[in-house]
Amino acid sequence: MTGGIVLDLRACNGVLVDPELRQVSTGPGTVLGELDTATAAHGLAVPVGVISGTGVAGLCLGGGFGWLTRAHGLTVDNLIAAQMITPDGETVRADARTNPELLWGLRGGGGNFGVMTSFTFSAHAMPQSVLAGNLIYRAPHWSGALHALREWSSELPDAMTVIATVLVPPLEWELGTEAILAVGFAWADPDHAAGTACVERFTQLAPPDVHDVAATSWPQWQSSMDDVFPKGVRAYWKNTGIDSLDDDTIALLVEKATELTWPGTAFDLHVMGGAMGRVAQEATAFPDRSSAFWINIYGFWKDQVQDAHHRDFIRGFHRDMSAVAQGGEYLNFSSVDAPAASGFDALAVYGEEKYARLAALKRRYDPHNELRLNHNIKVTG
Ligand SMILES: Cc1cc2nc3c(=O)[nH]c(=O)nc-3n(C[C@H](O)[C@H](O)[C@H](O)COP(=O)(O)OP(=O)(O)OC[C@H]3O[C@@H](n4cnc5c(N)ncnc54)[C@H](O)[C@@H]3O)c2cc1C
Question: Half-sphere exposure (CA, 13 Å, Cβ side) for 344?
């Protein structure tokens, strides 16, 4: 990298929980597993992502989808204060009273304004044991399960967050070597009977081939998918919002799922709405909350010779989705195809109004665009 510096903030991973105020402060080097373990000790949780090794900082600055999205919103919806150091050395705090516009921008505007040094989140009460699991479907039942998901998701209580994944399962799961559809869910409420009844409404519509559901601890559930994402690998991601799971969309998803014959490439279908969907569009810089579903198509692999094949599959899948999808881009699920500063169209992603506010923040806090190896907000605009 020419003329740049890389900061390793991994050691800045302290987590301070205030159980009375239900607030959690953490450094920029914290990973989700550390945050989950610290909050679970107080019967609390912050809505974050689903893989324990992901960094809180990058996840939060882009949005933060996970198993509490419908119950308590995105990670950014729970960010109540933050501190950063600007490129020219100014320490700046942002909360509802101090620099509220910066707080707005940090809720989805990425790492564009300064080097973050702390984050403070609202936390939520979590049951001691969480009802969560996967309902697993083999290929002949994918279409039926997706039609059932359409019906079930139209009346889901907020406590239920659902992510349906198609993948070739890791060998340790002992589910064979062919792709499966895993309808994963987490029920963020102590009333397990109500959660079980909610799950049964789905399984009556689409009886699963394997029913893998149990009460578990929050940190355990939060690391249950870690096997799927090896570290130190090559990767490529694309995503888009989906308005409705109509018959054409389901047919396309089943067609693409059928083509998935190798491990490492997969797609997640997030059921949106709930608390996340009720936050006003203009309340945060996060680009768009209107889609009923969000699809994330991704691949991980080790060998460079596989780059073209795996990347082309994901690009082709994403291109085909444009015929049925609503559009939109969640930046944390998005690979940038060209060098970051030039290959990313922030105006198209954020829309005119949000982009203008983000560009004004950029001019205020990073006028020379020192922080540009990111989903970059241009200084001009
Ligand atoms: C295995 C895996 C699983 C994932 N699962 C989810 C998920 O469940 N939900 C979800 O929403 N996303 C998920 N993501 C996407 C994830 O949110 C993004 O990749 C995010 O950028 C990761 O942030 P990081 O801090 O780990 O990475 P980093 O590479 O450290 O940071 C990514 C970017 O964030 C910014 N940034 C990070 N730290 C700072 C800082 N201190 N100051 C200023 N800017 C900073 C920078 O622009 C940096 O380039 C996942 C990613 C992976 C690889």
Answer: 22
Pocket test for ligand 1, best of 59, 65, 77, 167 (most atoms within 8 A of CB): 59
CATH 3.40.462.20 fits 130-333, yes or no: yes
- Judge whether 288 and 281 are in contact, CB under 8 Å: yes
Which residues does ligand 1 sit against, CB inside 6 Å? Answer: 9, 28, 49-51, 54-55, 57-59, 61-66, 110-111, 115-116, 229, 332, 374
Q: How many A from CA of 131 to the centre of ligand 1?
A: 27
The DSSP secondary-structure symbol of 19 reads: T
Q: How far is CA 82 from the centre of its chain?
A: 20
Nearest-atom index, ligand 1, CA of 371: 47
Q: Tokens representing 30?
A: 């914290």
Q: Which amino acid is at 5?
A: I
Q: For the chain, what are the domain ranges?
A: 1-126+337-381, 130-333
Residue nearest to atom 29 of ligand 1 (CA): 58
* Ligand 1 centroid, distance to 61 Cα (angstroms): 8
- DSSP at 41: T
Ligand 1 closest atom vs CA 9: 41
pLDDT in tens, the chain (381 residues): 456 777 888 888 899 999 999 999 999 999 999 999 999 999 999 999 999 999 999 999 999 999 999 999 999 999 999 999 999 999 999 999 999 999 999 999 999 999 999 999 999 999 999 999 999 999 999 999 999 999 999 999 999 999 999 999 999 999 999 999 999 999 999 999 999 999 999 999 999 999 999 999 999 999 999 988 888 999 999 999 999 999 999 999 999 999 999 999 999 999 999 999 999 999 999 999 999 999 999 999 999 999 999 999 999 999 999 999 999 999 999 886 654 445 689 999 999 999 999 999 999 999 999 999 899 998 875
CATH class of the domain defined by 1-126+337-381: alpha beta
- Closest CA relative to residue 290, chosen from 299, 300, 280: 280
